[in-house]
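In this section we walk through a basic example: taking a raw amino acid sequence and producing a predicted 3D structure, encoded as discrete structure tokens. The instruction is simple. Fold the sequence below.
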Amino acid sequence: MVSGCLSPAIGSNERGSPPADGMADVLVLDTSALIAWPISEISGSLIIPAQETELRVISPDRGAILGSMGAIMNDPNEVSLDVARDAAIETGDISGLSKVDLSLVALAYEKSAILVTDDYRMQNVSTAIGIEWRPIGETGITQAWNWELRCLGCKIVQPPPKSPNRRRSDFGECPECGSELKLKRA
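The resulting token sequence is shown next.
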């Protein structure tokens, strides 16, 4: 588990209160939900504006009708982004997340919403900060893990990156021996 953060059970939400009787849960949707879910299920859910560009690239047909799906666009505030970024750095997931991923986690944190994603890194960070999450088509994580950036040559652990990595599997070279750096389970 992540030290210094909440340690909730997988999928639980210690931050938010349960919805009042008759009220639906607030959902923050990952782009994969925008692609896979029926349009009627998307209406009223939260997304971030940057997902529109992402959706138009991944699924042009869905991207073209995003405005009519009824999703509510909202950017997270800086405080929530800081919480999500700090948790992702602490768990070691930061370099495997995109800026969109990090913003979605932050928005779910800010709104005490349920994050809907199949992304294991997003689920891991969400668990670390007490965000309830639901998978879309996969089972989801069963344990929260911490990751470290380790040299494949000399095995020295390097400090984790401080921001998302554009190329998710390219972590650079070891400053000690020049070998490739990889994320490994701590």
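Looking at the output, two observations stand out. The longest strand covers residues 147-151. The helical segments are 31-36, 39-42, 50-58, 60-64, 78-91, 99-110, 120-128. In the next section we compare this with other chains.
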